[in-house]
Design brief:
The structure is a single chain. It contains 13 helices and four strands. With about 325 residues, it is mainly alpha-helical. Among the domains are: about 70 residues; about 100 residues, Cytochrome c-like domain (Cytochrome Bc1 Complex, Chain D, domain 2, Orthogonal Bundle). Strand 1 and strand 2 form a beta hairpin. The N and C termini lie far apart (about 100 Å). It binds heme C (HEC). The site of heme C has 25 residues, from helix 9, helix 10 and helix 11.
């Protein structure tokens, strides 16, 4: 048996291979698997012992076989073993691709001119170079046909595709990182789960002052269209997050509620508008008209002209004023 790698190296390599495979396949989150699951340390120890045992067994088998050899056999075995290992196929391939002629044969390929003692050999092009050259020709043909004859995708559409993927990734990130919202980026949430969460937050934290139905007691009525501190999701988010005017009793909730929770409760509060609960407090503050409302009214029609926008604007105002009374 020809031994190319010393046994201690073989054991170490195999051990770390098993180790790496284990780390790769066991999903252990942030921590490496052998810390997250201590049982794997035991497993690794077993692997190590097993590898050493296999090495020892192989050694002793080799030893026994050696003892059974004749003297002549022993000599031949020693010889074979001491011969340095070489990768015969790799070496042959390397020489073939190099394609150079041995120095002894140079006489056959020398050209018969001679410039001040400088001679030239008529070597064949090295095969590795020739094959690569052929490969570029094939590549060029495929490229030509694909992009200049059949007009496959171009850089612009490739760019668009990548941007599309990136946008999807950003969406995904925003969806999972809801706490990134602040008063400037918050959007009205409409998912039932968000609104239910908002209701729970409202009933535990806010109902004492605003009443469960939002009609208001210590705090103002939240169900009308009049807002002291500004209506619309962004203002309401801001009020809840930063609190009301000093000394009025509405504290800043940003220290006890997460941004995502403030967005939920703000969306729930928005949903209360127009519910007209019994015994509600009189409206306080100013009528809030959503500056985005005209744009929303024209949303279905993307070609809306300026005139149309103004038209949708006018009927909204008196209507809202009526509900506010
Ligand atoms: C201790 C009583 C109290 C609690 C609890 C309280 N609020 Fe208020 N809230 C007030 C008062 C008082 C005001 C008026 C502040 C002002 O005039 O500056 C107010 C104002 C508001 C406003 C603005 C109303 C407007 O007209 O602009 C919103 C929105 C609001 N509260 C929502 C909430 C939410 C959501 C919670 C629960 C997370 C909450 N409040 C908890 C007392 C309270």
């Amino acid at each position: 048996m020809r031994n190319s790698i010393p046994s201690w190296l073989r054991v170490t390599l195999l051990f770390f291979l098993v180790f790496a495979l284990m780390e790769y396949f066991i999903d252990s989150g942030e921590q490496p698997a052998f810390i997250a699951f201590p049982i794997t340390q035991f497993f690794l120890l077993m692997v190590l012992l097993l590898l050493i045992a296999i090495e020892l067994i192989l050694k002793s088998i080799e030893n026994i076989m050696y003892q059974t050899l004749t003297e002549e056999g022993k000599v031949r075995y020693e010889e074979a073993k001491s011969k340095p290992w070489e990768w015969a196929w790799g070496k042959r391939m390397y020489l073939k691709l190099l394609g150079s002629r041995p120095i002894e044969e140079e006489g056959e390929i020398i050209l018969d001119h001679n410039y001040d003692g400088i001679k030239e050999l008529d070597n064949r092009l090295p095969p590795w170079w020739v094959y690569m050259f052929y490969a570029t020709i094939v590549f060029g043909l495929v490229y030509l046909v694909r992009f200049h004859i059949f007009d496959d995708y171009d850089q612009a559409s490739e760019f668009e595709q990548e941007m599309e993927l990136a946008r999807a990734a950003v969406e995904e990130y925003k969806r999972t990182a809801k706490d990134l919202v602040d008063a400037s980026t918050v959007e009205l949430l409409t998912d039932a789960s968000d609104l239910n969460a908002g209701e729970t937050i409202f009933n535990t934290n806010c109902a004492v002052c605003h009443k469960t139905d939002g009609g208001g007691s210590i705090g103002p009525n939240l169900t009308d269209s009049y807002w002291i501190l500004g209506g619309g999701i962004k203002n309401i988010f801001n009020t809840i997050s930063e609190g009301g005017r000093d000394g009025k009793g509405m504290v800043a909730w940003k220290s006890s509620l997460k941004p995502s929770e403030i967005a939920q409760v703000a969306s729930y509060v928005m949903g209360m508008e127009g519910t007209n609960p019994p015994d509600a407090k009189a409206p306080e503050g100013d009528l809030y008209v959503n500056p985005d409302a005209p744009a929303e009214g024209a949303e279905g029609d993307t070609d809306a002209t300026e005139v149309e926008v103004i038209e949708t604007d006018t009927p909204v105002m008196p209507e809202e004023a009526e509900t506010g009374e």
